[in-house]
Amino acid sequence: VQLQASGGGLVQARGSLRLSCKFSGGSFNWHTIGWFRQAPGKEREFVAGTPWRGENKYSTDVVKGRFTVSRDNAKTTVYLQMNSLQPDDTAMYYCAAGRNIVVINTTRAYDSWGQGTQVTVSS
Question: What is the pLDDT of residue 54?
Answer without folding.
Answer: 62
